[in-house]
Amino acid sequence: MSSGAPVITIPLSSPFQDQKPGTSGLRKSSRRFAEPHYLESFIEAVLRTLPGVAGGTLVVGGDGRYGNQRAIEVIARMGAAHGLARMVTTTGGILSTPAASHLIRQRQAIGGIILSASHNPGGPEGDFGVKVNGSNGGPAPESLTSAIHACTLTLDGYRILEAGAGAAGVSLAAPGMQTMAGLTVEVIDGVSDYLALMEKLFDLDRIAELLRSDFPVVFDALHAVTGPYATQLLEQRLGAPAGTVHNGIPLEDFGGGHPDPNLTYAHELAALLLDGDRYAFGAACDGDGDRNMILGRGCFVNPSDSLAVLTANASVAPAYAGGLAGVARSMPTSAAVDVVAKELGLTCFETPTGWKFFGNLLDAGRITLCGEESFGTGSDHVREKDGLWAVLFWLQILAERRCSVGEVMAGHWARFGRHYYSRHDYEAIPSEAAHGLYDRMQGMLATLSGEAFAGRRIATADDFRYADPVDGSVSEHQGLRLLLDDGSRVVLRLSGTGTQGATLRVYLERYEPASGQLGLDPQAALGDLIAAINALAEIPARTGMDRPTVIT
Ligand code: VG1
Ligand code: CO
To answer: Nearest residue CA, atom 1 of ligand 1?
Structure first.
């Protein structure tokens, strides 16, 4: 440490072990984070493991949830004790995940710490989280998270600048420079750099023209991080009327809501678009701003379809007019984008769930667009999924095509065929029941090939394994797949992001060619697959639930 200000080393009575290897951060209840030394222990492991901390620059911010500002203060004091040279943070500590990714890249930082539990509820009774990103701006790769995990197992103490020493604390009230012993704390406006990036990628003037025509839009920030971004972007830059952004003030408990943009948790927005006719376009993002939900009048865009539509229409956005290097989707995401990629002569990669698996492909220039079925879409402009980027991309397409969202979808299916798709989530089931169900299915896989299933035959039953085409690293056990002989699929996974019990995800998919029936209700179109997997995996009996908690 350069300054000689008092650093205290606090010994830990029991080493901190509560971190799963392979997860890009730590997501637990706020109560857990309030336990003495809990947050500090994890930050210690991060600061000991992340390369370049001494003398480096670190980006820190979060989605505004309860605990955000305290964590920024702790990271500053611990960063100072570890010889960090500069911490870049934002007014109010508000920084969306994609904006953080951009900032890390722009500032050539050693990485970032994003304080968020993403789409999980916040507040003293909700969840808190600490995500670690690397110097490419993306979620820490498995090699780094495993090293952080290993470090948490051997911690004997942590180093922190004594409160009151070197600085009274970090003030996040306004942009400016502060120092804390040898550490420079730079507080910036977290929104403007991100807006400048969007300005480069899209023709915002053209979108503004669309919004000035008879095209009313609504955006629900769910009282989470995108409020300030969306207000500046939609209402100030693009000229949408004041009030276009609903729930635009970030609150520590998200107003008691669940900041997850899906039909269940963003039901107010869904009702505006699906039951009313006031708006032509609606969108929402999650707690930390990396997810998006797109709605048209009477029309919900399935996220897997959204990735396919963006790929098929990429040339309307200036940033992608020159063509795409390739595309990627996570394994449980529907193959809608595969069909588009094939037609356009693009390579389409299939990765495990989680944005970190796109990182190498993006860094190597092998892909330009990528996405997940879980409302995540993004491109090589940052190394995270990006909710508002997806909203702008859709508006760019609509500004060019001058038609409704429903017409875009109908036109897409008429050209490429339709992948009927649904995800059924069984949330907060007792861990033993979930693992019992999953382990049983895993054990049965070898016997399932060739068996009859929902009037088809199972062509392949396997546990998805991914070999990274860039660095050759292998990730095993990424989800159970039943691939049927007509191209339909059922996939089972256990969530890695829940904090209560376990969450079982069942992914269902069936392809209907362009000449077939394109206007069915997805639940009806997938009815036989749903019944078959419920029976085979004994889902109702083993979960004790006769229907999923969330259906997408
Ligand atoms: C979920 C989604 C996954 C996504 C992850 C992080 O994981 O299914 O696609 O990458 O959340 O998203 P899981 O393991 O619960 O299925 V976020 O918005 O928390 O950064
Ligand atoms: Co998120």
So the answer is: 497
Please tell me the number of the ligand nearest to residue 505's CA. 1
Q: Which residues are catalytic?
A: 118
Q: What is the DSSP letter of 306?
A: H
- In the DSSP assignment, the letter for residue 21 is T
Query: What pTM was computed for the model?
Result: 0.92
Copy the structure tokens of residue 4: 């000689």
What does R_g of the chain's alpha carbons equal in angstroms?
Answer: 23
Task: Look at the block and give the residue holding tokens 């984070």.
Answer: 33
User: If you measure from the C-alpha of residue 320 to the centroid of ligand 2, how many angstroms do you get, rounded to a whole number?
Assistant: 24
- Backbone torsions φ then ψ of 272, nearest 5 degrees: -60, -40
Cα of 423 vs its chain's centroid, Å: 16
Domains and CATH numbers, the chain: 7-190 (3.40.120.10), 194-416 (3.40.120.10), 418-551 (3.30.310.50)
Q: What is the pLDDT along the chain (552 residues), one digit of tens a residue?
A: 444 567 777 766 555 655 565 566 788 899 999 988 889 999 999 999 999 999 999 999 999 999 999 999 999 999 999 999 999 999 999 999 999 999 999 999 999 999 998 888 899 999 999 999 999 999 998 889 889 988 888 888 899 998 765 556 889 999 999 999 899 999 999 999 999 999 999 999 999 999 999 899 999 999 999 999 999 999 999 999 999 999 999 999 999 989 999 988 999 999 999 999 999 999 999 999 999 999 999 999 999 999 999 999 999 999 999 999 999 999 999 999 999 999 999 999 999 999 989 999 999 999 999 999 999 999 999 999 999 999 999 999 999 999 999 999 999 999 999 999 999 999 999 999 999 999 999 999 999 999 999 999 999 999 999 999 999 989 999 999 999 999 899 999 999 877 778 999 999 999 999 998 998 999 999 999 999 999 999 999 999 999 999 899
Closest ligand to Cα 131: 1
Q: How is residue 110 written in tokens?
A: 């050693």
Task: Say if residues 185 and 87 touch (Cβ distance below 8 Å).
Answer: yes
Residues with CB under 6 A from ligand 1: 118-119, 286, 290-291, 330, 353-355, 372, 374, 376, 495-497, 505
Nearest CA to ligand 1 atom 11: 497
Whole-angstrom distance, CA of residue 103 vs CA of residue 108: 8
Whole-number Å distance, alpha carbon 177 to ligand 2 midpoint, is 29
